[in-house]
């Protein structure tokens, strides 16, 4: 007792002497400020992002206030952003962009022909098995089955179980089938979701709410290997959970269990292991993670999104994997993607729970909405019954035998590739690939050079960072004859070239990736990534169209023919000179009569013309003055607006008798650029 008393008394005296002579209001205000400061400090330190990360962010954010830095950064970002856009523009330069509803609906033929033109872009890469992952199977029989299934179920929605009870039955069957594959007992249950990310997010949500209710956890944290999928980070961001990343053993590429154990605290809502993970395809020691979960009474989620529907068949396929499922008593949930190795069309995944109490916390219920009591199991309200039915149909089509065969082929191919790669000098394999992913690194050269070299040979692999690496995710596409051997052959060929001078730096696109990794300011990387995402939504702007110059003295003549329309941004890349000559030699009865009036800006001339019926199918638009020309129809108001251009094209596309009698207008601007729709 004395031991405690003495310092306490000393402390008391120290405080008394510090405040001696102070007025009561001073003491009160000092104490209040001190307490508030401590509370603030605690809150400042204890956030979802660590102090270090936030400190770094602040420094870089402040640095960007320096004008010179900001200009430089913005310049670089803009140029890279333009690069992204140009890439997309180039890939689609021969295709039309539709930015407005057609006045009249298109015919089925027209829609399907345009659809196919869009879908054939880069088809050869994945069809030949030269891309990693992405397409897991491409089987005409399954495609037909899915098409037929979708046809009769596309309108269904499990949100209305009274209307579509059979659809709900099929969803329940899919969940039960997958539960059984993962050795769940009768109590196990789950949900179908739109994909792995949603499955993972649902488990995180369930555990967050479960921990809040049962243990009063207000500042939830999850303990997750660095190799786990970024869907966990996304879930943290969406759900306000703090991420505790756990390093891996660099040799085995499995999570470091000691570090995992050390990261567990009273706020931990879940532990995560991958079976297998995405970067290296290695399987964490799930059995030990399960034990940790039991010991600390914390739920354990096993992410089997990628390889789960391989591991469950691997025993029978002759490649027994470690046990990673509900047979381990600490495992409380599993995510598995039916749209990966289940070979179902994209848009389905399953999240499974050992007990119904967890699934209850996954649900969202609002009881007081004016629209009624609303309960929904996952993120979506309405859900695609067509996807559920197609997944159900695919599972039944393959059957146990089909999946075992597919698994055997895939794992066999992955092992074959792994063995072949291990024989090659200059590269190494990360950890022990467990299922279908084989990751390659190098101590001798920049591994992105290999990626770049393979890219030039048509291969599309995935890049890894920290440390740099690349991986191939083997699917049914790679099990076709010769694909794996061609891959090994191509790697060998690239290596021979690289090893001539291993010290050379990487060039091309992969250089950007390498640089991005070394950038300490991650906010720039995230800006870049945002621009990249923007480029997925690329639609040409009229200004961009105008900035593309066609060579002088090259008037443009374009025939209009029935079929899909093409937006010409510039003449050259789409129509070769030879082709152009032919156009010019052909009949081109220019129907342009005479300038009618000036309109819309100083350099624009508005000409109206009548198009005769027999010119309907083939109409040459001449531009004798090498001026900018675009087509509009009557209700055009603002020529600077892309949609206007669009309107006119649609008029031409739906060419029929009615259209033939309609006057069209051509705006000719005093510039040497072209924007024209070729039909
Ligand atoms: C693909 C994948 C996910 C996420 O699945 P999506 O269907 O892409 O949302 C999660 N975990 C792993 C290991 C994956 O490979």
What do you see in this structure?
Keywords: DNA damage, DNA repair, Endoplasmic reticulum, Hydrolase, Lipid metabolism, Lyase, Membrane, Pyridoxal phosphate, Sphingolipid metabolism, Transmembrane, Transmembrane helix. It is found in: Endoplasmic reticulum membrane. It catalyses: Hydrolysis of alkylated DNA, releasing 3-methyladenine, 3-methylguanine, 7-methylguanine and 7-methyladenine. There is one protein chain. This protein has 24 helices and 21 strands. 46% of the residues lie in helices and 13% in strands. The chain is an alpha+beta fold and 679 residues long. The radius of gyration is 31 Å and the shape is globular. α8 packs parallel to α15, α15 crosses α17 and α16 packs antiparallel against α18. β2, α10 and β3 form a beta-alpha-beta unit. Strands 1-7-6-5-4-2-3 form a seven-stranded mixed β-sheet, sandwiched between helices. A four-stranded antiparallel β-sheet has the order 10-11-13-12. The chain folds into five domains: 44 residues, no CATH class; 79 residues, no CATH class; 251 residues, Type I PLP-dependent aspartate aminotransferase-like (Major domain) (Aspartate Aminotransferase, domain 2, 3-Layer(aba) Sandwich), CATH 3.40.640; 120 residues, Aspartate Aminotransferase, domain 1 (Alpha-Beta Complex), CATH 3.90.1150.10; 136 residues, no CATH class. The relative contact order is 0.10. The C terminus is likely disordered. Pyridoxal-5'-phosphate (PLP) binds next to α9.
């Amino acid at each position: 007792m004395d031991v405690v008393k003495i310092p306490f008394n000393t402390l008391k005296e120290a405080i008394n002497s510090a405040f001696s002579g102070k007025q009561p209001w001073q003491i009160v205000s000092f104490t209040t400020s001190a307490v508030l400061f401590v509370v603030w400090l605690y809150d400042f330190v204890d956030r979802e992002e660590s102090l270090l990360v936030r400190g770094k962010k602040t420094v870089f954010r402040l640095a960007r206030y320096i004008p010179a830095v900001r200009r430089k950064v913005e310049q670089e970002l803009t140029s890279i952003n333009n690069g992204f856009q140009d890439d997309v523009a180039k890939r689609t330069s021969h295709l039309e962009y539709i930015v407005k509803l057609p006045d009249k609906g298109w015919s089925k033929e027209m829609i399907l022909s345009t659809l196919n033109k869009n879908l054939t872009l880069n088809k050869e890469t994945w069809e030949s098995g030269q891309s990693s992952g992405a397409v897991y199977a491409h089987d005409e029989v399954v495609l037909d089955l899915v098409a037929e299934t979708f046809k009769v179920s596309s309108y269904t929605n499990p949100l209305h179980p009274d209307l579509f009870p059979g659809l709900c039955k099929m969803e329940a069957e899919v969940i039960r089938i997958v539960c059984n594959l993962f050795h769940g007992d009768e109590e196990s249950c789950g949900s179908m979701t739109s994909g792995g990310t949603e499955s993972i997010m649902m488990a995180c949500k369930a555990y967050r709410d479960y921990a809040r209710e049962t243990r009063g956890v207000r500042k939830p944290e999850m303990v997750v290997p660095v190799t786990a999928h970024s869907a966990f980070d996304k879930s943290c961001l969406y759900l306000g959970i703090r991420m505790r990343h756990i390093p891996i053993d660099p040799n085995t590429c499995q999570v470091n269990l000691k570090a995992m154990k050390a990261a567990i605290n009273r706020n931990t809502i879940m532990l995560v292991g991958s079976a297998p993970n995405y970067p290296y395809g290695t399987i964490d020691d799930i059995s030990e993670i399960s034990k940790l979960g039991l010991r600390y009474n914390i739920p354990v989620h096993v992410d089997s999104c990628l390889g789960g529907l391989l591991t469950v068949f691997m025993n029978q396929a002759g490649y027994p994997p470690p046990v990673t499922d509900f047979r381990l008593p600490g495992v409380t949930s599993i995510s598995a993607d039916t749209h990966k190795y289940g070979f179902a069309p994209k848009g389905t995944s399953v999240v499974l729970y050992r007990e119904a109490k967890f699934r209850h916390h996954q649900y969202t219920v609002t009881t007081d909405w004016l629209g009624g009591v609303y309960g929904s199991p996952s993120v979506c309200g309405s859900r695609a019954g067509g996807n559920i039915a197609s997944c159900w149909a695919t599972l039944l089509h393959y059957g146990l035998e089909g999946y075992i065969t597919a698994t055997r082929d895939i794992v066999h191919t992955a092992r074959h590739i792994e063995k072949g790669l291990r024989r090659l000098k200059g590269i190494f394999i990360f950890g022990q690939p467990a299922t279908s992913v084989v990751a390659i690194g190098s101590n001798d050269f920049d591994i992105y050079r290999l990626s770049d070299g393979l890219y030039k040979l048509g291969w599309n692999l995935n890049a890894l960072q920290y440390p740099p690496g690349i991986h191939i995710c083997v699917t049914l596409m790679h099990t076709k004859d010769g694909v794996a051997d061609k891959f090994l052959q191509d790697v060998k060929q690239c290596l021979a070239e690289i090893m001539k001078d291993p010290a050379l730096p990487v060039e091309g696109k992969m250089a950007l990736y390498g640089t991005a990794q070394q950038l300490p300011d991650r906010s720039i990387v995230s800006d870049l990534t945002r621009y990249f995402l923007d480029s997925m939504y690329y639609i040409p702007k009229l200004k961009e169209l105008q900035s593309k110059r066609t060579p002088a003295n090259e008037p443009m003549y374009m025939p209009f023919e029935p079929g899909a329309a093409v937006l010409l941004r510039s003449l050259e890349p789409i129509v070769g000179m030879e082709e152009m000559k032919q156009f010019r030699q052909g009949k081109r009865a220019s129907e342009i009569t005479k300038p009618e009036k000036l309109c819309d800006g100083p350099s624009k001339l508005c000409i109206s013309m009548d198009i005769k019926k027999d010119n309907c199918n083939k109409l040459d638009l001449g531009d004798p003055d090498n001026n900018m020309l675009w087509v509009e129809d009557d209700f055009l108001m603002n020529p600077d607006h892309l949609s206007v251009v669009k309107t006119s094209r649609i008029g031409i596309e739906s060419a029929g008798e009615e259209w033939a009698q309609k006057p069209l207008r051509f705006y000719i601007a005093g510039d040497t650029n072209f924007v024209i729709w070729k039909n």
